Amino acid sequence: xxxxxxxxxxxxxxxxxKYTGLSDSxxxxxxxxxxxxxxxxxxxxxxxxxxxxPVEPYIPxxxxxxxxxxxxxxxxxxxxxxxxxxxSFTGDGTSKEFTLSLKGLDATEVKARVDNTDKKEGxxxxxxxxxxxxxxxxxxxxxxxxxxxxxxxxxxxxxxKIKKCKFMVLYGGAxxxxxxxxxxxxxxxxxxxxxxxxxxxxxxxxxxxIGLDVEKVVGFSKQYDSLIVHxxxxxxxxQYTMVDGEAFFPIIxxxxxxxxxxxxxIQIVENNPVxxxxxxxxxxxxxxxxxxxxVLHLSENIDSMLKxxxxxxxxxxxxxDNKYWIAVNEKVYLFDYRVQEWLIYDNIxxxxxxxxxxxxxxxxxxxxxYTVLCVLTSNVRxxxxxxxxxxIGSPST
Length: 397
Known about the structure:
Elements: E1 2-4, E2 7-10, E3 16-20, E4 28-32, E5 35-39, E6 44-47, E7 52-54, E8 61-66, E9 73-74, E10 84-89, E11 97-99, E12 111-114, E13 117-120, E14 125-128, E15 133-136, E16 147-152, H1 158-163, E17 167-171, E18 178-182, E19 190-193, E20 207-209, E21 217-223, E22 226-231, E23 235-238, E24 241-243, E25 246-248, E26 251-255, E27 267-269, E28 272-277, E29 280-284, E30 295-297, H2 303-306, E31 316-320, E32 323-328, E33 331-336, E34 341-346, E35 352-356, E36 359-363, E37 369-372, E38 389-393
Parallel strand pairs: 8-10
Antiparallel strand pairs: 1-2, 2-3, 4-5, 5-6, 6-7, 8-9, 10-16, 11-15, 12-13, 12-16, 14-15, 17-18, 18-19, 19-20, 21-22, 22-23, 23-26, 24-25, 27-28, 28-29, 29-30, 31-32, 32-33, 33-34, 35-36, 36-37, 37-38
């Protein structure tokens, strides 16, 4: 799948347009349940191998065993992404009026299923949307959870909490069972989680406010069975635990002195997260205790140069062949972590890195793709080279 300006394409050699109308911003992609999901900070889309379309939200059953008056047991959270909800009632054989969990319903047709038979609004029942009540022409029979009513209510700003997010991570302890979103500019310190193996379901209470809003969440990384949440001036750890059969994701602070200023600087190097902070490039070594000594400073020899780079928060990185690449302002700072030495290359206008057939590849914005032909030597701590790039094609061809 290729994102280019406001369009989505398949097949990089001869692109086939699959969708138009994207925001002109970087996209995030992930796979779950044999489908590809995409987010651009404005829309949340899914590609099933044939079509690209907006994600169809899961409709949760918010209550069960309700009596016709509306008293029952809470079951599932409302879905932030959608407007639909279900109430499951236990009919008493005499009541015709059933009170839903919400009032002020949308104009969308209400659906009902009684004793496994579909009923139609206007024929089998009427709806008082303002009061949130459904009245059947014939009282449903006595039973247990034998009356299921599906209704819709739009809550302003609810779906935007999810759709405005810009980056994600799959996590669930030892297994990637859920998707976590963040990067919403209106709620910069928030993280949201999806349902179990279900990116169409975003429980209204499945959110985490991490620290203060003045310090936004910048990205995620994983270290063993922990999820590291990167903020601008701090690092936090989320873990997965089960309590009475229910999943919980407790969060604790790890480091209050070092954070991350560039989302695309985060890489996993030898099982440890590496990131660009205001103070330089650091590696998180330990997640067992809250301690400023649990990070290792990697860039001491080049910090004076990094701190002079404008737009350093736009830096992008790549981990390949035991080397950590960081590109910014047409320079590449390269850390060979086998020998603990830095090299610097100039005149490399990279917008992203790709690995194609074990070759370093750089994508240059709206121009062409280049592959690096230069041989990197590790016996010089800092060096500058001329550009040695060979064009390998253009996104427009």
